[in-house]
């Protein structure tokens, strides 16, 4: 497999072309992963609407019936449930880590064992998130699929 990146100042946007002899199922996750970098979620903060790039979202959590989108510097409110956003983000770098939270694994800095068969996730900004035992297998499978499990464990 050859990978080429071509920069051209005259391009009006980004374009990814995958050339294959025959399209196979293993390409589906790759396509979903690439497409997420151009996707946005509509959220709001202080009565103003914002389109948040998926690539800018660190984690999403549900607190007191509100779905909060957390970026490096801001927190926004999403107008739907965590379950619906999880379905919308299927095939992306987001993973459920507990009943009320999803994490963008792109921002994982460290994963360490924690008491009661849980994991403590450290994000690249130093923020820490705790997984629940119920979602440990889901996270581990996601990290293995992304080729990241051996890096962290």
Count of extended strands: 10
Report the biggest beta sheet as strand number plus sense, adding barrel if it closes. Answer: 7 strands, antiparallel
Structural class: alpha+beta
Count of helical regions: 4
Spatial strand sequence of the major β-sheet: 2-1-5-4-3-7-6
Runs in which pLDDT lies below 50 for 5 or more consecutive residues are none
Please state the CA-atom Rg, rounded to the nearest Å: 17 Å
- What is the element string, with H for helices and E for strands? HEEEEEHEEEEEHH
The 3D shape can be described as globular
Strand content: 35-45%
Measured between the Cα atoms of the first and last residue, the distance is: 28 Å
The mean pLDDT is 88
The amount of helix comes to 10-25%
Describe this structure in words.
This protein is α+β, with helices and mostly antiparallel strands and 153 residues long. Helices cover 20% and strands 35% of the residues. It has four helices and ten strands, in the order αβββββαβββββαα. The strands form two sheets. A seven-stranded antiparallel beta sheet has the order 2-1-5-4-3-7-6. A three-stranded antiparallel beta sheet has the order 8-9-10, with no helix packed on it. The longest helix has 10 residues, at 136-145. The chain is globular and about 45 Å long. The model has no long low-confidence stretch (mean pLDDT 88).
List its traits.
153 residues; alpha+beta; 7-stranded antiparallel β-sheet; 3-stranded antiparallel β-sheet; 4 helices; globular
List the helices and strands and how they pair.
Blueprint: H1 27-35, E1 40-45, E2 48-53, E3 57-63, E4 66-71, E5 75-78, H2 82-88, E6 94-98, E7 101-104, E8 108-114, E9 118-123, E10 128-130, H3 136-145, H4 149-152
Antiparallel strand pairs: 1-2, 1-5, 3-4, 3-7, 4-5, 6-7, 8-9, 9-10
């Amino acid at each position: 497999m050859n990978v080429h990146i071509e920069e051209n100042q005259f391009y009006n946007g980004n374009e990814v072309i995958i050339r294959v002899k025959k399209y196979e199922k293993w390409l589906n996750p790759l396509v979903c992963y690439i497409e997420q970098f151009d996707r946005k979620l509509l959220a709001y903060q202080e009565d103003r609407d914002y389109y948040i790039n998926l690539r800018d979202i660190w984690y999403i959590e549900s607190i007191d019936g509100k779905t909060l989108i957390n970026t490096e510097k801001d927190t926004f409110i999403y107008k739907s449930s965590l379950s619906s956003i999880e379905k919308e983000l299927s095939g992306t770098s987001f993973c459920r880590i507990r009943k009320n939270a999803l994490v963008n694994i792109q921002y994982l800095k460290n994963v360490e064992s924690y008491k009661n068969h849980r994991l403590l996730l450290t994000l690249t900004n130093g923020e820490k998130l705790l997984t629940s035992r119920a979602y440990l297998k889901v996270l581990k499978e996601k990290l293995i699929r992304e080729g990241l499990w051996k890096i962290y464990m």
